[in-house]
Amino acid sequence: MRKVYQSAAEALAGQLRDGMVIMSGGFGLCGIPEALIEAVLESGARDLTVISNNAGVDGIGLGRLLETRQIKKMISSYVGENKLFAEQYLGGELELEFNPQGTLAERIRAGGAGIPAFFTKTGVGTMIAEGKEIRSFGGEDYVMETGLFADIALVHAHTGDHEGNLVYRKTARNFNPDMATAARMTVAEVEHLVAPGEIDPDHIHTPGIFVSRIVHVPNPVKHIEKRTVRERKSEEA
């Protein structure tokens, strides 16, 4: 089975449609599948529901799909770095399903594990629990959250082989491994593409059985979401 494709557009050809649910890995701008997001933009698919920790920033990552009004709904945790997101949400153009960050991660993990729902204390007594089942265990209240499963998961990995085995690097690992298991089809962009057998089996984060398609994206731009610096001390100090 051929898994390696020549471009992000080719990897997603024939797989995108209006109204579908897409998971997109990353945390802030770290580990986002930017090339695959651009391919979604170019496809013109609309009314998308996107599951992602955040929505990129203005003009980068998922922020590009907000610019073209291709996203109808976001299922997210933190979206505070995107002005356009706020404008569309407050203007009634964009639906939003907020999640505590740990709950979002567990909903994705549960979806990949075939777990339809679970109970958590996070959010009990807040607006997060409104309309959801509350159940008591050991005298404590818990709110029921449902697992998440997408039509397509778009992930970014540091290294991948032709069989689809993936390795993530440091913070770019974030949501990517869980999302890779929680979709009908997972498409991965990798910075380094190696031959089968070159990745130590003990170092594999996502086994190739979860990955349907791969595109090699060498030397991707590593955006800095917020640059924080301090004044340089003088030599006399």
From TrEMBL:
Domain of life: Bacteria
Alphabetical UniProt keywords: Transferase
Recorded GO MF terms: succinyl-CoA:3-oxo-acid CoA-transferase activity
InterPro entries for this protein: 3-oxoacid_CoA-transf_A (IPR012792), CoA_trans_fam_I (IPR004165), NagB/RpiA_transferase-like (IPR037171)
Top EC class, one word: transferase
Gene3D superfamilies in alphabetical order: Glutaconate Coenzyme A-transferase (3.40.1080.10)
Pfam family, one: CoA_trans
Enzyme Commission code: 2.8.3.5
Name of the protein this chain belongs to: 3-oxoacid CoA-transferase subunit A
Organism (species): Martelella radicis
Organism lineage string: Bacteria, Pseudomonadati, Pseudomonadota, Alphaproteobacteria, Hyphomicrobiales
